[in-house]
Design brief:
globular, alpha/beta, four-stranded mixed sheet, 4 strands
Length: about 140
């Protein structure tokens, strides 16, 4: 799988770990080696702007996912400032929260949704199980 990672957040982030997570996910979900994915890590201002543009919500969020076509699986944009806040709330390290949210974004790219409470709970469970099993 071809992976492009763009760290625009003002934090030192282990990009090799993120690549490892994406590769493990691709293997687990049998995503072809010819697929491509883009991952961007951004700050609150950028994710808030994108969240408003694409979802009409004027607030920071943890992740936005945009499905692609053909060999391009899609793009995941993660708001790292929000990840750091959530980590404390959920009693995770920032790295653990980042991995969980990355997996959540990847699940979106392969067709899962969390528009209902039931779908959201299913995606959370799938993310937790993936992290336990593969990482």
């Amino acid at each position: 799988m071809k992976i492009e990672i763009n760290n625009q957040a003002n934090y030192k982030i282990d990009l090799k770990l993120l690549e490892k997570v994406i590769q493990a996910f691709a293997l687990a979900y049998k995503i072809g080696k010819n697929k491509e994915i883009s991952l961007a890590l951004v700050d609150d201002a950028e994710i808030k702007k994108l969240n408003f543009t694409y979802r009409g919500l004027s607030e920071a969020t943890d992740v936005l996912s945009f499905s692609g076509e053909g060999d391009y699986l899609g793009e995941i944009i993660i708001g790292y400032d929000q990840i750091k806040r959530q980590a404390g709330k959920f009693k995770n390290s920032a790295e653990e929260e980042l991995i969980f949210i990355l997996v959540h974004g990847l699940l979106h790219l392969i067709g899962y949704d969390d528009k209902t409470d039931g779908e959201r709970k299913k995606m959370i469970k799938m993310g937790e199980e993936f992290v336990k099993k593969y990482l």
